[in-house]
Amino acid sequence: MIEIKNVNYHYAGSENNGLENINLNIYDGECVLLCGASGCGKTTLTRLVNGLIPHFFKGELAGEVMINGKVVSQEEIYNLAGIVGSVFQNPRSQFFSVDTDGEITFGPENIGIEKKEILARKDKVITELNLEKLMNRSLFELSGGEKQKIACGSVAALLPEIVILDEPSSNLDYKSIKKLRDIILLWKSQGKTIIISEHRLWYLRNVIDRVIYMEKGRIEKEWNHEEFAKLNAEELALKELRPVDVEENYINRFFGKNSDKEEQIYDKTQNEPADNEMVLRDFFFTYHPKKYLLFRKKISPQDEKICELKIPYLKVRKGEIIGVIGNNGSGKSTFLRCLCGLEKSCIGRVETCDRNVYGTKLTKLCYMVMQDVNHQLFTDSVLSEVMLSMEKPDENIADGILKELDLFEYRQKHPMALSGGQKQRVAIASAMAAKAEIMLFDEPTSGLDYRHMKEVSGLLKQLSEQGKTVFVSTHDPELLELCCDRTIRIENGKAYEVF
Please, where are the H alpha helices in 200-266? Predict the structure, then answer.
């Protein structure tokens, strides 16, 4: 049993973020959901259980956390590894190997399990979690969802009594979320104690035993399974929570396979784009050009059979918001990277009524806001970050953009000191300063609560109203419903219109 008694905690150097007066018992074999708006203390609470607080994250801790009668703060963290297994929101942060096989066996090997037992555990985990297709792969080649599955496998190989999952569905497609639910149910049937910190609630409706709602570092409400399932969307929205009951047709419209409501996109008219249109042509790409191209550097339409991405034609309106959906590994992020000119072997081009843009010139036409915006923030102030994107730096113009995105008060702050949503807006401000005409977003609502998801939707609409064409790759049906004018599905590298 997990016992948390009279716990107060504040991170070092911070008075606001932390926990206050936490008293909670979690019983053996129980599946508990921690929910609440971003910053409410969910992740901090999980860190108390797995020992990252106080062993890794330093701060002021009062009170006591015990697992099976042992005080967590008095146990070495490696002694907790075989008892508590954690799957983080970003699985890359917990990887130690470079290949999938090595990652699954690393944990048992690290705590001194014999080789024969390690291999037996590996085989068992691969079979139980259906990981066969991911074996003998480089971790660097996996999609976000595939990395999440390997993270689950590496934790399962330790045979922990307690499993902690922090935003486990944030990078997963609908099919993978259903598989994740099956994994959680499997662990539950094995009698494991499961703690899940999550914003997406619908897939856990018939899985969890108890729900803990947190607000500003406190436990404000508890529901049992039956009470939680009865909450309607309005009641949940007031607490900044996403719906529990996402209607089946709502999910199926975007993520269910329904061939009579989809159509592969081809050039049927051969018409030139009108003044308010753009045409994307010949977006073909393979990750292994050297394997196939002996005397050429570029892929051509004739190479379609060897390509992971094969989109010969796509017409869009200027100012349109296009949702890009598809399973993990289907080619969504690859398409965005090719469209913004990051993949040099791709011959794709964007045609307008008066221009034909291709190659490195695409980097000036398009701007991509990555799923992890930390990778594209370089300077020591928000103002400098925006001015860095300008061909001719102009502080007055930069200030105007910052005011438009409610960032002006942070103009002299370091970008890395901002919240996730604020960092995202800084990346958008940089795109606006670069005068990009096509804006690309890769999973912009990953790990966001209901309120911040709506804020992202508002930002996308704002860009559309300014005449920007927006492509947004997402697994989030609520975002698609809120702001997208049309949706395309990418499957096996091909584009299909979703009606």
Answer: 225-229, 233-238, 248-255
Kindly tell me the burial class for residue 341, based on how many C-beta atoms sit within 10 Å of its own C-beta (0-12, 13-18, 19 or more).
buried
CATH fold for the domain made of 255-498: Rossmann fold (3.40.50)
Task: Compute the distance between CA of residue 50 and CA of residue 68 in angstroms, rounded to an integer.
Answer: 13
Distance CA 347, CA 282 (A): 7
Quickly tell me which residue has 């910053």 as its tokens: 39
HEC states along 262-323? Answer: EEECCCCCCCCCCCCEEEEEEEEECCCHHHHCCCCCCCCHHHHHHCCEEEEEEEEECCCEEE
Identity of the residue numbered 494: K
CATH superfamily, region 2-253: P-loop containing nucleotide triphosphate hydrolases (3.40.50.300)
Alpha helices in 351-417 (DSSP H): 362-365, 382-388, 395-404
Q: What is the rounded (10 degree) CA torsion for 229, 232, 238, 244?
A: 50
Tell me whether domains 2-253 and 255-498 share a fold: yes
Supply the pLDDT for residue 263. Answer: 64
Residue 259 has pLDDT above 50, yes or no: no
Could you give the angle at which helices 395-404 and 420-433 cross, rounded to 10 degrees?
A: 130
Could you tell me the pLDDT band of residue 205, with boundaries at 50, 70 and 90? confident
Helix (H) or strand (E) holding 183: helix 174-189
pTM: 0.80
Contact 368, 442 (CB under 8 A): yes
Task: Give the start-to-end residue ranges of the domains of the chain.
Answer: 2-253, 255-498
